[in-house]
Hints:
The chain is α+β, with helices and mostly antiparallel strands. It has helices at residues 14-24, 30-45, 50-65, 69-72, 77-126, 131-140, 165-178, 201-211, 232-253, 267-273, 275-286, 296-308, 313-320, 324-338, 345-361; strands at residues 148-156, 183-188, 191-197, 221-226, 230-231, 259-261.
Amino acid sequence: MKGSGIPPEFLDGYTELLTEVSLSGRLLRRAELDALRALGERAAEAGHGLRELTALYLDETRRTWGSLPGLVRASTAAQRARADDSLLAAVNAAIGALGEGHERAQRLAMRKEETARREFIDDLLYGRSDVGRLVARAERFGLRLARSHAVAVAEGEEPYDDVHPVVRRVERELIARFGDHDVLLTTKDGRLVCIAASSERNVLDAFAAYTGSPEGGSAGTRRVAFGREHSGAGGVVRSYEEALAALELANRLDLPETVLRASDLLVFPVLLRDRAAMADLVQTVLGPLTASRGGAGPLLETLTACAAAGYVNAEAARRLKISVRTLSYRLERIRTLTGYDTDDALQRFTLETAAMGARLLGWPEKPL
């Protein structure tokens, strides 16, 4: 008891309880068990572990056992055995009640901590809190927002939540390799988000590698997008939004890449900055393709495949799963209908830009 580190008041009434049980042989009453549960909660809230608390009660039981009146007065072996059984049942019930209270307090503390963590993450990723208060709260969760950070966002074949196998595995691997300082892993809107200090950039590369490796039949990640590094609390929001925008662009353009970097996609915000001008370019350059028998879709797909293949017809035809002859026919139709020739560098650039704009605007499925 001396080395337990728990104040004696946590034994409140326990010796008296053992004394009474040794004399009466009764079971513990509900009120007594509730009082023990409350003691267990108080011990947990005071920062005392369940092992310490259990050791305190067992030490007290051992100290008082030989002097309990019910045992002292037992004149026969049978009476002694009955008293022993009653006391052991009481000790077992008492320890169980203490454990229930202690665990209940811990669960409540964990729920409060998780709620606080979720509120912090929401405020951090949406920039909704006072910067000074946000910085102070960040230190509690291992982030120093005065430094530069970058954000990576993983989008899976199925939505991610905090108990998803991929999330648990990635968290386990990252903590084992890098620890939990200046790294924050969370889920948001069905995606997996990793925030890392710029000095820990390799954390994000490992994050992308771990999320892309399915385990135990769980679905892997479809894409991972990296925002750029920015400083301060507002920098985390900006990097997060860049990563989300990169995922959105990849989905709209059906990009084949599984790892995307916002720094590589800066041309797209420029293209969309003047939506009206882009719509005018698409309508003017590609609008005539709608006169084709199959509509503009196949010819637009042909332009995209040729650009991706570096205008190597055999490779473009392979990607489109058509013959080179069919590809040549389509290119001739594009030249005839639009007046733009892919063999001319400037006209090819205009066609490619218009085709990219069409994909960004959802044309021809959506009217301009």
